[in-house]
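User: tokens in, sequence out, please.
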């Protein structure tokens, strides 16, 4: 049995219309780091904050 769970980071990037390359340029992260954040293999709060800020998500 396979369960497909939507990836909120990838969906956010897609909803903003960014490719991993574009978000890489905006955030200063590498495309590899973005893909790892999206897949959950990289859990780094500072890098996640940079990615979210670049995507226009405001902190509360």
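Assistant: Sequence out:
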């Amino acid at each position: 049995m396979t369960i497909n769970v939507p990836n909120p980071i990838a969906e956010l990037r897609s909803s903003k219309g960014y490719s991993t390359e574009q978000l890489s340029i905006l955030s200063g992260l590498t495309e590899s780091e973005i893909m790892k954040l999206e897949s959950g293999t990289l859990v780094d709060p500072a890098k996640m904050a940079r990615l979210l800020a670049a995507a226009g998500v405001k902190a509360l």
